[in-house]
Amino acid sequence: xxxxxxxxxxxxxxxxxxxxxxxxxxxxxxxxxxxxxxxxxxxxxxxxxxxxxxxxxxxxxxxxxxxxxxxxxxxxxxxxxxxxxxxxxxxxxxxxxxxxxxxxxxxxxxxxxxxxxxxxxxxxxxxxxxxxxxxxxxxxxxxxxxxxxxxxxxxxxxxxxxxxxxxxxxxxxxxxxxxxxxxxxxxxxxxxxxxxxxxxxxxxxxxxxxxxxxxxxxxxxxxxxxxxxxxxxxxxxxxxxxxxxxxxxxxxxxxxxxxxxxxxxxxxxxxxxxxxxxxxxxxxxxxxxxxxxxxxxxxxxxxxxxxxxxxxxxxx
Length: 316
Ligand SMILES: Nc1nc2c(ncn2[C@@H]2O[C@H](COP(=O)(O)OP(=O)(O)O)[C@@H](O)[C@H]2O)c(=O)[nH]1
Ligand SMILES: [Mg+2]
Ligand SMILES: [Zn+2]
Prior knowledge:
The protein is an alpha/beta fold. It is 27% helix and 28% strand.
């Protein structure tokens, strides 16, 4: 038996990638009943799919599988390995839909300039990564347009929070090896505003595949409604990049106010220490979060970022 990863899943047919080769696979008939989804003890949303109907959610892009080769380039999937994570979104008629399994790295790309980095937007992506239990990697691209000092200064506060910041330049081939290394053996998604160089970075790591077109994603038509399919792109240097429009517009998904607090790592030590149990950390007296802001243990800017996100979350 071979082991591989599902790159594409279309109407019961799976493209499985194993050691630089792809196989068109079907699923063993009685496999559906045996699927046993488990997940790591990370901050990620718990996998409870065992109680959900499997009919539409048997296997997804990113699942690791064992399969037998039945003829050159084709096989039958015999076993699905436990899922480490499950990235879901509301699908058709609001039904929860697995978009990518085993996604574990969120590459958040911003440019040092052109366009100037919007740190409020960066905070949103980081909060979403925290909520999904994804490891974030901040890429500060177009480093060639600013000095090293300016790049460091702009992203310093994130490093202080413990996030990894990787300066890159596609133009000067800077940091690309480090990015390749960070992606190895991982299932990653690239997010960030348009024009920051996401496609350029992917093309630089994957010459030969023009990702400018892949950026749009693609659509399959099934009956009356339209679904947008996800796929994984294998990188020659190792690792897979998830390509789906739904991921690119990543936002906080069904996030409660309480959950949002935990998505700001510097808040965690102060949570539960406010005078009121239902403190919104806004105008209430005896607020531990506001005290931490006054004592400069939480930055004023990140605090205001939290309030802006909290207002949005509670409005939903
Ligand atoms: N100066 C500079 N320009 C870059 C760099 N990376 C990408 N660009 C340019 O930025 C523009 C947007 O890049 P693109 O990859 O399409 O961004 P995307 O929208 O995030 O996919 C293009 O004109 C690129 O040539 C870089 O490292 N330095
Ligand atoms: Mg692009
Ligand atoms: Zn408070």
